[in-house]
Write a structure and sequence with these properties.
Structural class: alpha+beta
Largest sheet: 6 strands, mixed
CATH topology of the largest domain: Rossmann fold
Number of helices: 8
Bound molecules: adenosine-5'-diphosphate, magnesium ion
Shape: elongated
Order of helices and strands: EEEHEEEHHHEHEHEEHHEEEEEEEEEEE
CATH architecture of the largest domain: 3-Layer(aba) Sandwich
Amino acid sequence: MKIVLENLTKIFPSRDKKAGKEVVAVNNFNFTIPDGKLIGLLGPSGCGKSTTLYMISGLQKPTGGKIFFGEDDVTELSTENRGIGLVFQNYALYPHLTVKQNILFPLQNLKGADKMSKEAMLERAYEAARLVQIEELMDRKPSELSGGQQQRVAIARALVKMPRVLLLDEPLSNLDARLRLQTREEIRRIQKETGITTVFVTHDQEEAMSISDMIVVMKLGVVQQIGQPQDVYDSPANLFVAKFLGTPPINVFSGRVKGEKLFIGEEAVLDVKGVKDQDVTVGVRPEGFVPDENGPLHTIPSNVEVMGRDVSVVSTHEASLNPQVRSIINSDHKVDVSAGVVRWTLKPHKVFLFNKDTEERILPEEA
Ligand code: ADP
Ligand code: MG
């Protein structure tokens, strides 16, 4: 089921009636979510992710714009009639019911023509349980389950009605690091097996990048960029997106273009054909540095962190807009911190130039 968001907008009235301003939680969101894909809705806390999800679910009414499921305008449709499955951060299971009863619950509430026989309901419940691999836990109470298992039950409960659309709001936030990794792979597997169009909300860029077919990066209610994770990483539309994606984060310098050369500090570090003279903000991905004793850029190293396969060189530079410059290099390279200086060449495709005022990317230009 494709989902079309058309000029979707949500404005909350001010909480403080006297002083406050209204909040534009979602501002003119336009996107067609392709059928059968997993979309990662990504951005810092408060950027409007949950509000977008709640509007798709029908839990919140848009202030403006429309939502279509396939060709159907569902903007005015109630949550129950949208055919969605919802999973929240806190599993929200009924504590006094067993796992089986929790999963059966949405089916028992079906009315009229949708009403199911007891056998049919049980079959469905076991099918959903199998999908999330909790069949052997069906007679336990939620309190007898780990966080990861509880979240699987919540997902099974969301799937049991065979929704047209699956909506997940930070479903992994309450899990510890290991379970988070494991459960996100599970969610990806289930999504692929069922082919249900899925919107997955998270503030964790790595999580979104790792499982999404496409990501949507939001900031203050405004969509910044939509694309395949690797494309957005390789080709960020602006400084915000460049900074939001990637661990360790992108290094940011103030720089200057003069005579088609990019200067960081006094050093001409890269040829930038076709860019006119101007002050710029420069982003360099940590993996964009190559140690090179004749390289044009120098930094002052403070330490080297061994990370197994790679080595992370921490250094400083007077034009860096962050306290530290982080370079990730292959552990085959030797970097001598005691020398007091490291020289680098930059990989051109790992360097982005941004307009100093608008922070929009100016190089490389969009293909
Ligand atoms: P996210 O899920 O990305 O953290 P939300 O969608 O929850 O962000 O919130 C977006 C903005 O809307 C925030 O500024 C938040 O404070 C505001 N907001 C969310 N819900 C309400 C509400 N019910 N009333 C007023 N403001 C709200
Ligand atoms: Mg939220």
